[in-house]
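Q: Hi! First time asking for a complex rather than a single chain. Here are the components, and I think there are two in total. Is that enough to go on?
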Amino acid sequence: MATVTYKNVYKRYGDLTVVTDLNIEIADKEFLVFVGPSGCGKSTSLRMLAGLEEISEGEIYIGDRMVNDVPPKDRDIAMVFQSYALYPHMSVYDNMAFGLKLRKVPKQEIDRRVKEAGQILGIEHLLDRKPKQLSGGQRQRVAVGRAIVREPNVFLMDEPLSNLDAKLRVQARAEITKLHQRLGTTFIYVTHDQVEAMTMGTRIAVLKDGILQQIDTPQRLYDLPANVFVGGFIGSPAMNFFDATLIDENGTMYVDCRDFRVAVPEENRQLYKPYLGKEIIMGVRPEHVHDPEYPPPGITPALVEAKVDVTELMGHEVNVLFATPHTSFMGRFDPRTSVTVGMTKTAAFDMSRMHIFDKDTELAIRE
Amino acid sequence: MGMKQRKTISDIVVNGVLLFLCLVWTLPTFGLLVSSFRYKDEVRRTGWWTAFSTQRESETPRFVLDNYLEVLMGRDFTYTSATGAEVRASGDDLSQAFLNSIAVTVPATVIPILIAAFAAYGFAWMDFPGRKVFFTIVVGLLVVPLQIALIPILRDYTLLQLNGTFLAIWLAHTGFGLPLATYLLYNYISNLPRDILESAFMDGASHFTTFIRLILPLSMPALASFAIFQFLWVWNDLLVALVFLGARPDVAVLTQRLQEMVGSRGQDWHLLTAGAFITMILPLTVFFSLQRYFVRGLLAGSVKG
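A: Yes, that's all I need. Here is the structure of the assembled complex.
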C-alpha cells in the first residue's frame, strides 16, 4: 500500500507545456480522480506516474521512493487502459496470468489469483475465451482483472468506462467503487466525466490546460468551487454565470446584472465589501434557481423576472431556460410548476448558495 | 429508373469487366497447361486449342503424360528428327533442381523476414538516437535497383570465396529483400495499438519478450503477406541465382534448368510447358495456403479493427 506524491511536476513536448507545476499528495487507500476536459493534461499526469511518459521536471514519489527513473514494470503499479489493451491472441486466463508469469510467480499462485479475480469480477466462466468473443462490459472486467491479479500498490485507471454504454457505465462505476473498498488500495482514476468523478472519488483533482485548478472532496468541490472553471465544470446542468457589478444602495449590497439586481445576504456583505463598484461574475447553480410557488425551506430568495425560453421536462423536475435581454440562465423547477414557453415568470435565486468570482482572476471570493 | 435497377446494371458491368480480365489473365496459363499434356509433335505443329477439335488428322492420342515423365524421370526417350531419323536422347531430371530451389528459397525468405521484423520493431517502438535517419536510409534503399549491386557484390564474394554457395545467394536475397520487408513490417507494427505494448511493459515485459510474445503473433498477417512476396520473388528469380550460384548442376535452381531446356534444345519447347508447370506447384501451394493472410495483410492498417 502506498502514497503517491507529485512534486512540482512539469511535462513539456518541445515548446508546449501540457502539465504545469503539478503538486498533489495522495494518501494511502485514497480514490483520487483526475478530471477535466480533453487536453487538460489528466492522462499525461497519470502516464507520468505509470512511467509511460518521461517527467520533464519535478519528482514523482510512490511511497517514499522517487520513481522518475524507475521503469514501469518496477513501480509496482497496474493500469487499466481506456481501450482495455487486452492481448487479442491470448485467452482471458492468459491475459490475466501474463504479468504474473513474467514475474516468475509460481504456477499454483497464478492459478489461485486468476481464479479469485475471475470470481470477484464474475468472469470465471469466461477464462477460456479470447477477448474478441467478449462483450464490451466483459472486456472491461478482464482489463480490471488483469490489474487486480498483480496485487499492485497503486491502481491506475485511464477512462476505463468511456467505451461502455450508459447503463453499463453506471453499473461498472458502482463495481469499481466496491472494488476499491474491498481491496483497500490507492486508486488513481482519470475521467472527463464529472459525474464519474463526483460519484467515485474520495478526492477530485480538477485540471485545465495542464494546471491544477482545485483538489478537494466532491462535496466541497461542489459547494465551494475555487474559480469559474471549476464552478462550471462540476455539476450538471452547468452553473449559471452572470457578468455583474457589486453596488450599494441605501445600505443594501446588490449584485447588479443590468437586467435585474439581487440582494447579497447580510452575512456575506463584509466579505464582498472591497469589491463594491467593481465588475464581478456571479454564479448560481440551476438547482438553486427555484419556482417561487414551490420554494424549498431554508433558502434566501431573490426574485428575478424573466421570459421563459425553453422548458425541458425531466419527470422529477423541469429545466427552465430563462432569457433576459443580456443574458440567459437555467432553473430546475418543481414539476408541478405552471411555466409555459413564452410567458414571463418570476424565478427565485437562493442567494445563500450563490458564488461571487473576481472578474479578472476568475477566482472565487472567499474568506 | 429505380436505384435498385441502376445498381444491378452497374454490378453486371463491374462483374463483367472482372470476368473478362480474369479470362485474359488465365488464358495463356491455360494454354500452357493444355500444351504440357499434348503429344510433342502436335505441340510443334498446331496450336493448343486444336486439342479440343473434333476433326483431327493424326492418330496420336490427344493427351499424354510424356512431357511430364520426360522432364521428371530423366527417362530415355526417342523422337523422329526433321530428317526422319530416330534419335535417342536422355530426358531431364528436375528433382535436383527442385530441391536446390527449395534450399535457396526457404532460407532466403525466412532470414530477411526475421531480421526485418526485429528492425521494424526497433524503428517503431524503441527510442534511440538516429532512429529517423536510419529508417530514412533503409527506405531510401528501396529505390536502388539490384542490378547495379550485382558486380560489386560478385567481386566481394570472389574475395570471400562465397561464389557458387547457397550462403552467397541467401545473403544476396536477404540484402535485396530487407528494405521492402522492413518498410512493410514497420508500417504494420507501428500501427499496432500502443496501449497493448504499454500494457505489456507495465506487466513487466522486456522489449524482447514483447517482441516474441506480442509483436510476432499479432503481426502474422503482415509477416505472411511479405513471406509470399519474398517466396515468389526468390523462387522465380533467374538473374540473382545465375550470377551468384552459377549453373553447376549440383546448385542450379529450377529457373536455370528451365532456361536451359529451351537453350540446349530449342526444338523441345514442349518440355518447357511441363517444366513450367512443375515449377509452379510450390508457389501455388504457398500462395493458396497463405492467401487469407495475404488479403488481410494488404488491407491491414487501412481498415481499423
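A: Chain A has a mean pLDDT of 93. Let me know if you'd like any chain examined more closely.
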